[in-house]
Amino acid sequence: MQILLAYVPSATSEAAFEFAVDTARECGATLLVLASETGLDARKGDSVADKRPLTERLDETGVEYRLQVVPRRDDPADDILRAAESGEVDLVVLGIRKRTPIGKILLGSTSQRVIMEAPCPVVCVKPKSFVPPRI
């Protein structure tokens, strides 16, 4: 079994990271981590509690993983769906956050597109405690 984790340094991705690692341990699955090129160094992400590099954190989990770095794009759903459609992914794990209706119109929704178009189950995880971003 292979679990795809979409990761950018954020509180939502941290929740998804924890869920994906726990699920991989329980199922004996491997992780395919799609990380934005900005996601490798968590120090760049605000509201990320663990500032260590992603590779160091993945190594400590004991879970077998493959890290694929993808360039920052307007619509990251393209990369997530391409990987999910490879036939090797059994589950996609995404972090989600609340958006206003206007925010959804202006920025779209990566999660919504992945949920609707992925050929496998998608689990959306939200942070345990939501702290609104500072403006």
From TrEMBL:
Alphabetical list of PANTHER family matching this protein: STRESS RESPONSE PROTEIN NHAX, UNIVERSAL STRESS PROTEIN UP12
Gene3D superfamilies with a match to the protein in the record: HUPs (3.40.50.620)
All residue ranges annotated as the UspA domain in the record: 2-126
Family per record: Belongs to the universal stress protein A family.
Matches recorded under InterPro entries: Rossmann-like_a/b/a_fold (IPR014729), Universal_stress_UspA (IPR006015), UspA (IPR006016)
Native source organism of the sequence: Brachybacterium nesterenkovii
Protein's name according to its UniProt entry: UspA domain protein
Lineage: Bacteria, Bacillati, Actinomycetota, Actinomycetes, Micrococcales
